[in-house]
Amino acid sequence: MLPNFGARRQFSDLSEKEILALAISSEEDDSRIYLDYAEAVRADYPATARVLEGMAAEEERHRQGLISEFRRRFGEHIPLIRREHVAGYYARRPVWLVRNLGIARIRQEVERMEDDAATFYLEAARRTSDAGTRSLLGALAAQEQQHMVTAEALEDANLPQDARKEEDDKAHRQFVLTWVQPGLAGLMDGSVSTLAPIFATAFATQNSHTTLLVGVAASVGAGISMGFTEAAHDDGVISGRGSPIKRGLASGIMTAVGGLGHALPYLIPHFWTATTLAALVVFVELWAIAWIQNRYMETPFLRAAFQVVLGGALVLAAGVLIGGS
Q1: What is the pLDDT of residues 56-69, one digit of tens each?
Q2: Whole-model pTM above 0.90?
Q3: How do residues 111-142 score in pLDDT, each as one tens digit?
Q4: Residue 277 CB neighbours (<10 A)
Q5: Which domains does the chain have, with CATH numbers?
Q6: How far is CA 63 from each of CA 29, 57, 80, 120, 298, rounded to the nearest angstrom?
């Protein structure tokens, strides 16, 4: 019978030798992860990169200590066993995924890495009845907890308050440029530009189904157009606005959402009920746009509300007048 290479072993089945080997490989993996993160943020966040490099060096020192302990107890050969070989062992998120989510997310992941390791060793120590294994797991947990203390010390040394604030401000600006600005432009375009065709159709036909078809077509078409336009007109290299794919998705999706918001009420067969609900949705959309402008673009709320509501009201009136003529 062939062995099942896909099966993972239970932690309870591991010997102390295998547990120590697992700890060694885990420390090596974490050290490399920290270096990958450091390389990813070095250009924009050099202070955080230095913190991550210091943590990687700390992980490597702990790995060397574990290797010395392994050699003292079990000899030179260290069996290959990694966290993915053990059922229930903590997993690490892919580096490529986390580093694309921004500096704040990387910091959170680093904290989670250390906390996961310490928690796992403590839980494993509580569940074993063997005194030697329990002592070993407790020592590993203490080492992981010491990593968190070291991380805080490294952060204090390499990431003072003013440097962290500067990095946080830069990350916020990047978030606004990549996601908020194109998303807001899309929401404004979808909410305002589709008002005229949707309400013109509504008052011209007074038919919910026809209005729904026109509204969905206008919203989806505008979303596709805005998405491709945003992605194609600026690659983000010179402007620093970030990935064109991310910006295109933000702009396209929010454009479609803005139009669909006041098109979908026409799923209701009764025309005047649907129209009343659509008008209420328009009101909510316009005030949401004003709030986003105030929250992220630092536009005074009253000025933003006046501009958006006035513009939306003019487009809405045009659609009603054209449709009713």
Answers
A1: 888 888 888 888 88
A2: no
A3: 778 777 787 778 777 766 767 767 877 877 87
A4: 17
A5: 9-159 (1.20.1260.10), 172-324 (no CATH)
A6: 10, 10, 14, 17, 49
